[in-house]
Design goal:
Residues 44-399 form the Alliinase C-terminal domain. This protein has helices at residues 55-59, 87-100, 115-127, 152-160, 237-241, 256-270, 275-290, 294-315, 353-359, 385-402, and strands spanning 9-10, 25-26, 30-31, 37-38, 44-45, 109-114, 141-145, 165-170, 184-189, 208-213, 232-236, 248-253, 321-323, 340-345, 362-363, 365-366, 376-380. Strand 3 and strand 4 form a beta hairpin. It is an alpha/beta fold. The N and C termini lie far apart (46 Å). The strands form 5 sheets. A 7-stranded mixed sheet has the order 6-12-11-10-9-7-8. Strands 13-14-17-16 form a 4-stranded antiparallel sheet, with helices on one face. It binds pyridoxal-5'-phosphate (PLP). Pyridoxal-5'-phosphate binds at residues 49, 115-117, 150, 189, 193, 213, 215, 236, 238, 244, 249.
């Protein structure tokens, strides 16, 4: 039975008490036992990329995507072929890419990870050959990405503090130098987090390897001009179906040696992806494939499109703030969408856009988190409807203050 929590909260399975009572977990800015009480001065939180905009779609498919798992189901470490990969799930994933047309998967190995997060680092390890003993001339592979970029690339590379690879910052610094200074590993995120641009590699040459992060290369976030066909491509279930908490992602790898190094890392690091997560992925992705991927993307695209249009409309009256421009792409029926708004504060004195927004009760993510100027801030458009509605209200308030010269602007 679905408990409504006034439409502003959720009652989860693990929220059931021993006495069978269900507790509502309320959306931000809502409270009370049934989540019906709105806190008027509460800040609109557009910080994180929690993809709850897809929750209503799964609520409409609650019965067909319910997973009931008894205590004895698949308790062992591995599947019957001794691998950590469900062959049925692999089939479904390959079919999904064929139906959507966003990736050519043939002739490529597949790997599963705890979210695409685990695979990002596995990819660096796979692409950076190990430091040979006693070779003092060996230099670690330089890991780079072009700003603004997803900060986890740097964080992960730094935390490993490896002899084999080292974070070397923004790709543009290395543009014309890549041939001279050893191996490079470039992250290319397409569409990009935070600005939604379809990116291409910047570095070229025999010593450059590329990791394509396609977490957002799905029709609800971008036009799909051609199926991706790169040597190392990473996908995330979180941004495809919205099931971020299942921590499931996959990678396609062309080169056998790279695949083997990645596979060995994943096995040492976690003994493979959780079979419970794989079961959840199997059930939801099977439904998406059976439906020829129509319903999910229609719902997702419509939602993202409406949000992007509403935000653009509200900000079109502003001289103080501007949004990124998304190039119209390839097919005329497709109108631009993006998972995140990349907002620029245009006034000279507004060099900390996060602070400007925070004063107006909007929580954004600072430009410097993405190695960009703090004149920029990211607003997440993929959260739940309450979060988006409140964000739009607050932006509207902020913009209308510009139009009233007598009023103090925040
Ligand atoms: C560009 C990019 N890559 C990867 C990830 C990680 O996703 P996952 O939930 O699959 O670990 C994110 C999450 O926000 C992301 O923005």
């Amino acid at each position: 039975m679905m408990i409504r929590c006034s439409g502003h909260g959720r009652a989860y399975l693990d929220g059931l008490s021993m006495r069978g009572e269900v507790a509502c977990i309320c959306n931000s800015c809502y409270g009370g036992q049934d989540c019906s009480v709105f806190t008027p001065n509460c800040a609109a939180d557009a910080d994180d990329g929690n993809p709850l905009f897809l929750e209503p779609y799964w609520m409409n498919h609650a019965a067909t995507t319910a997973v009931v798992v008894s205590g004895w189901n698949r308790m062992g470490y591995a599947y019957e072929d001794d691998s950590n990969i469900s062959k049925e799930l692999e089939k479904i994933i390959r079919q999904l890419h064929a139906v959507v047309g966003n990736a050519n998967t043939s002739g490529k190995y597949i790997l599963f990870g705890a979210g695409s997060t685990q695979l990002l680092n596995a990819a660096i390890i796979g692409l950076s050959p190990p430091h040979p003993d006693r070779d003092h001339s060996f230099s670690p592979a330089s890991v780079v990405a072009s700003a603004p970029f997803y900060q986890v690339y740097k964080q992960q590379t730094d935390i490993y503090n490896s002899l084999n690879f080292k974070w070397q910052g923004d790709t543009s610094t290395w543009k014309n130098k890549s041939d001279q200074v050893g191996n490079f590993i470039e992250f290319v995120t397409s569409p990009n987090n935070p600005d939604g641009q379809l990116k291409e590699p910047i570095l070229k040459g025999p010593y450059v390897k590329t990791i394509y992060d396609y977490a957002y290369y799905w029709p609800h976030f971008t036009a799909i001009p051609t199926p991706a066909d790169s040597d190392l491509m990473i996908f995330a279930m979180s941004k495809l179906t919205g099931h971020a908490g299942s921590r499931f992602g996959w990678a396609f790898v062309k080169d056998e040696a790279v695949y083997k190094r990645m596979s060995s890392y994943l096995s040492i690091n976690s003994i493979g992806a959780s079979q419970d997560a794989q079961l959840r992925a199997f059930v939801v992705l099977r439904m998406v494939v059976k439906d020829k991927a129509k319903g999910l993307f229609e719902f997702g695209y419509k939602t993202m499109r409406e949000r992007w249009e509403m935000l653009n409309k509200t900000l079109s009256k502003s001289k103080r703030f501007s949004l990124q421009k998304l190039e119209p792409r390839y097919c005329s029926f497709f109108k631009e969408v993006t998972a995140y708004a990349w907002l620029k504060c245009e006034r000279e004195e507004d060099h900390d856009c996060y602070a400007v927004l925070r004063a107006a009760r909007i929580i954004s993510r600072k430009g410097s988190v993405f190695s960009a100027e703090d004149r920029y801030a990211r607003l997440s458009l993929i959260k739940n409807q309450d979060d988006f509605d409140l964000l739009l209200d607050r932006i509207d308030e902020l913009v209308s203050q510009e139009e009233q010269p007598g009023l103090k602007t925040i």
